[in-house]
Structures are given as C-alpha cells and as structure tokens.
Fold:
Amino acid sequence: MTQREFFGAGAVDYLAEVLDDFHARSVFVVAGRRSYQASGAQASVAAILGARPTYLFTDFEVNPKLGDVQNGVATFRAAPPDAILAVGGGSALDMAKLINCYQANSVRADAVLPETAIRRRGVPLVAIPTTAGSGSEATPFAVVYVGSTKHSVDHSSLLPDVALVDPTLTHSLSPYMTAVTGLDAFSQAVESYWSVHSTAASRSLAAQAVAIAWRALPEAVHAPTDDARRRMSRASNLAGKAIAITRTTGPHALSYALTAHYGVPHGHAVALFLPYFFRYNLEVSADDCTDPRGAGHVHGVVAELCRMLDAPAAPEIQAVVQRFVGSLGVETRFAPLHVSPDALAGLLDEVNQERLQNNPRAFDKKRFHDLVATSRPAEGGLSRLPDAAGQA
Structure:
C-alpha cells in the first residue's frame, strides 16, 4: 500500500478532504488522554469533524497493555465507525493500529495477534502525530505490553492509510518530552543505519534523519522555533520510514524492560543504551558479526555515522553521544534512576530477542555489562523523571 502523506504547518486541515475521500460518515478517535487537548489537536479536529458522529477513546496507558486493546476493540465494535483517527504520540498511534487490526480480523483480543491471523486491513486509518519521536505514522507495526513484556505486531496492514504531520502540534511539548521523543527518533535513525537489514534506501532515509536531529534537537529543546520543530517532525518521519524497512536493534531491544520496571519513558530508556552500542558495534569482529556483509561493512557504517556526528570513529564516540544526550537535560547514568549494577544485569536478561537479532554484533551480556560498568558518564541531566503522563 502507498501511504498518502501531508506534511507541514496546517497539515491537519486536510483531514476533511481525506475523510470525504473515504466516505467516512462516522469517526473513531483514539487520542492521548491529555496531549489531545494540550497539543491543540482537539480544537482543530473537532472543528473539522463538524456534525460527523464521533467516538473518542482515550482509555489506555502511555505504554499500552493488551487489556487496553481489548477495551478499545469492544468500544469500536459497539459503534462501529467508518474510519479511525489516531492523534497523539507513539502509544496513541500504536493503539489505533492495534484496535483496527483486531476488530477487522474477528479474533479475540486476549493474546498477541500473530501475523498469520491478519487477513484484512480494517477501516481507513488516519494518523496525526503530536510528538516528533516515534515515527509511528510511517511504520507498519505497533507495540503492546503483556505484563512487563513488550511485543510487536508487525504487518503491512498496520501502516496508516494517511499521515497528517503537522509540526505545530508539537509546540506544547515540554523540554524534557521534546528531548526524549526526539532522542527516540535519533536512535531509530542510527539503529536503522547499522541494522543487518539496512539497504541503500533505508540508509538514505536514516542518514537524513540523523543529520537533521543532531542539529535541530538541541534547538528544539533549549530555544524552540517553528523551524526547529518542523525539522524534528521531519526527522521523526524519516526515521519511521527507515525502521519500517529495517526495524530497530540493540538500544531498543534493551530499553523495553527499563521502561516496564522503572517507568523510564521509552525515548529516555533508548538514549541510555545508545552510546554504549555505538562503541559495542564499532568493536565487532568476524567472530561475533551477525551481518552477512561482514565485520568490515559494520565498521564502515558505524564510521559513517561517526562522520555524520563530526566525531572520531573510536571508543570516544560513546562519550560524544553521551554528552549529546546529557546536553539535552536527559540523565545519562543508571544510578540516579535507581538502577543498580545488579538490577542492570537483570534487565539485560530481559532483552527483546526480536529486535536484538537485527543488531550487527551478537549480544554478549557479560561484555556489554562490563562496558557499562567500567564507563563513567559525565554528571548531568535529570536525576528525577518529570511527569510524562498524557503524552500518549
């Protein structure tokens, strides 16, 4: 399927035209509980929907659980509407994808849906992101938690039919949420670039996203302008398109348990691990390389990333990326987030194998733990997590 995309200030105004094209008389809106109003999206969407019957669903957590999907499917089926509108961050967009997928395939929403059970697309789905981070509007997969375990539903039918990317909807984000959602996009782009599934097309998308975010994210956090917000929305969208081809790798694989057990927002959790994987992957050898193109290829792509960041392709790259993360006001150390060395070792046991398989160097828990334990990130960032609720 080819997705229709509208990008830029005022992109949300195309919603009326899009719904008319789908002959959508009624709309099921899946939105972040607080971000829907705070972003300004609610006022714009309400004016556009006008007299169309609308059903609003906001009853889900920032990191959606399978039970949230069950509730959403039941609410959808009680309506049922002609189209779904997803408005919010990655959680809201993923929730809308899952509701649409489950309701269309007539299966009970009490287990993670296998790809083999997906046979129908569902109703038209329109995605409007209110963060510049997940890129979920551009991907064919969605994340859902069962207990503390993260699962992905991955199928072409989950790609939204239309993406309306309006950077003005990100203006209300706090500096911290701007930073951690932006770091998610940055890490996705980096991970896509070195993924074992990378292609020339995916690396082109990822390189653009890396270059934009490296320069625009500090401005968007510390001195936000319309242009900085626009560039970060573009970086997020490009990174989403890149991981749609390659999927994510090590930093994402390790991040989910940290989010589940310690409440560290997803983008922050990813950013804690990303610097270490720069060095870890740079030290790949023929004995532990998982990329069929060989260790030389991996060394080359990591070196290319280092050049994009004006950094040396050496162990110093870890410190360069950590300083970048810390400069955004984001804590780079585990201890201030109450994650002890023993707790970290336990988290490494819960690594997401699906994402880890995409990493170009085989994961050695002891080597990685020793790398983290012997590093001394500079102090800085936040020692207490701000309230991230409502940013779904």
Observations:
- The mean pLDDT is 92.
